[in-house]
Amino acid sequence: MAQKGQKSGTSKYTKWIWKLFLGGLLFSILIFSLAALNVFGKLPTFEELENPENNLATEVISIDGKTLGKYYRENRTPVKYTELPENLIHALTATEDERFYEHSGIDLQGTLRAAAKLGRDGGASTITQQLAKMLFTKNASGNIAKRLIQKVKEWVIAIRLEKQYTKNEIITMYLNKYDFGHSAVGIRSASRIHFGKEPKELTIEESAMLVGMLKNSSLYNPMRWPELVTERRNVVLGQMLRNEFITEAEKDSLQKLPLELDINLEGHRDGSATYFREYVREFMRQWMEDHPKPNGESYNIYRDGLKIYVTLDSRLQKNAEEAMAEHLTNLQSIFFKQQLKNKTAPFYDLDKEQIDHTMLSSMKRSERWRKMKNQGTSEKDIKASFYVETPMKVFSWKGEIDTVLTPYDSIRYYKYILQSGLLSTDPTTGHVKAWVGGINYKHFQYDHVKQGKRQVGSTFKPFVYATAINQLGLSPCDEFPNTPYTIPAGKYHLEEDWTPRNSGNDYGGLRSLKNALANSINVISANLIDRTTPENVVRMAKNLGVETDIPAVPSVALGTVDLSLYEMVGALNTFANKGMYVKPMMILRIEDKNGTILEEFTPETKEVLSESIAYTTINLMEGVTLYGSGVRLRTSGGKYPDNVATGYPYKFENPIAGKTGTTQNQSDGWFIGLVPNLSTGVWVGAEDRSVHFVDLTRGQGASMALPIWALYMKRNYADEELNISKEEFERPENLTINLDCGKEKGEDENQDDQEQNDINEEIDF
Fold it and tell me: In angstroms, rounded to a whole number, what is the distance separating the alpha carbons of residues 155 and 128?
């Protein structure tokens, strides 16, 4: 009887279990069916599954194949499965979904385990389910019932995804979609930002760290919690051992390694070529207006995943940015030191009323003023806000400084900061190779390559000399008296006599054209522009690509006009390119996300001068670096005050055509140097022209700008793969102009001593 009763009880219990199981199974089938029929809300269609909504970053890609930067709302650039390393796939499946290759979207074994243990050992979401959630569940509901419905819908979507895509495609979509934080959406951005490399280059421990972040990228953030991330990485390595992807010895050695991050943030104000990327953004804004999609819609630079291939070389760009930082770190400290004796620092030549006007103008141009004015704040209250101490971060060459300043004081502090621009191009193709528009884009957005225009000083003189050689048939060896030269009132609409003076009032004797240009002899420039007329000199500059309006007045011979680096380098390129003007070119081609070419660009060219005239002008400019104002590129003797020539001696021995420029009161320093396949211009100065060095020694172009050129070119020559020329400029076969002038002043065996004498004279000045 007892056995019969016991057997009956067991049978009832078994029946109850089966009923519960079958009931649950039928209920699940019902729920899944209802979800599939959109009873709980619309599910994505076949087309939506095939083309899930994506925001793809647009990339700017250098001529050497490096990503310079991106434009995005969501920083994601997809990769193909073949671009993913095997160790990353192993780390992912071992940690997130061990039975990934066995299930069809839902891991029943894992689900039952999670349900039995109430999730204490983790959830059971497969990689496919997680992908479904990322693609189609915008926000997980906090309501339990609603979240359960969302979960069911994700299961249905996961099954559909498994039917529609291969396992490899699902893994690729998942890794391309996950948000790793710090504007790193997708594995490629995460790999570049955290390790400075492409995904296929990831090591086992690096892959393990990134996979560890998938659990919760906010919590497992290596920039904030490196110890926690290291622990999580080691858990992933343990999972890889458990799944036999690595050995015990490998696990033990890899777990001992530090994270070794190489952080490369990809924000719009971070990274390399920031000023250039802003130029490209503006270019694309107009391009997208003029080039709609086939369906009539406009392209969106932030979500359409365009690829913009540019002429910039990432290696030259890096060299340029480093050279500028190296010299200006030194030059800025020298400038700060000089300002200690300036009672109106950092301004010179201004009285209190003029300084107040300058500061007020800067306040009105500030973002603070604009925002407060838009909010309807009175001008009185806006001004008052500039005198209230505020926590802020300010720029310095030693890194950002956390401080408390009034906005007024921060503006005045920034008036001390020397600014700079550098543009480097290949004169034979017009390709822009490096573009450094300023010292720090985060703090100074004004671009000193194309946007900014400053007085060019003596860098304009090659245009005058080229006009004279072309129009008058002169030779570099022709001599002119080094005496004061006057153009009388009335001529060229002058209201009074114009008699320029030489620097240092150095007069006497005769000077060849080559010597006169090398040493920036102003009286001979005045003589030449009078012979050729200002109109013809202006016409020459325009033919060489200068777009700014230039007044046709005699003083333009001394560079009184404001021009941009972009214009100056583009124009002087013509001399290095045998008289053929090539408009500076930045964009090579634009592709859509599928690699379809939307537009390719070709150089704009025109013949301006004969090869003979162009080569003769180059020959004149070579004198500048042989025995003129740029001779310090070659010398090794002496020492400059305050070591203002950063990195001196430079000891260049190859042919270099160049021209320095220094404007009134040392407000602007220029140097433009050319070798056969690279022309580079540098400008240095402060935001306000009343902020400058008080002396010529430190404030001339040879001290402010030339060292950046020298440091840049030394870096370029150190990398033989860049193939920067050290050869002679190509001489025309039928050249009839006499270039053999004999030895010029300074062109002798005691060149180093001559340079030191020049330095001593500058100190006396």
Answer: 9
The pLDDT tens digits for 305-314 are 999 999 999 9
Strand 58-61 to strand 307-310: parallel, antiparallel, or no bridges (unpaired)? parallel
Q: With DSSP H G I counted as helix, E B as strand and the rest as coil, what are the percentages for the chain, rounded to 5? A: 45, 10, 40
Condensed to tens digits (0 to 9), the pLDDT of residues 64-75 reads 999 999 998 877
Q: Are 196 and 202 in contact (CB under 8 A)?
A: no
Beta strands of 25-74 (E only): which ranges?
Answer: 58-61, 67-71
Do the beta carbons of residue 279 and residue 565 sit within 8 Å? no
What span, in angstroms and rounded, lies between the C-alpha atoms of 153 and 159?
A: 10
Distance CA 731, CA 437 (A): 34
Q: What is the pTM of this model?
A: 0.81
Burial status of residue 567 (CB atoms within 10 A of its CB: 0-12, 13-18, 19 or more): buried
Question: SS3 for 401?
Answer: strand
CA angle in degrees (0–180, nearest 5) for 436-583-459: 60
Range 471-501 burial, b when 16+ CB lie within 10 A, else e: beebbbbbbbebeebebeeeebeeeeebebe
- pLDDT, residue 504, reads 83
From residue 339, give the alpha-carbon distance in Å to each of 334, 457, 700. 9, 24, 17
Asked if 744 contacts 515 with a C-beta cutoff of 8 angstroms, the reply is yes
Alpha helices per DSSP H over 106-143: 108-116, 127-136
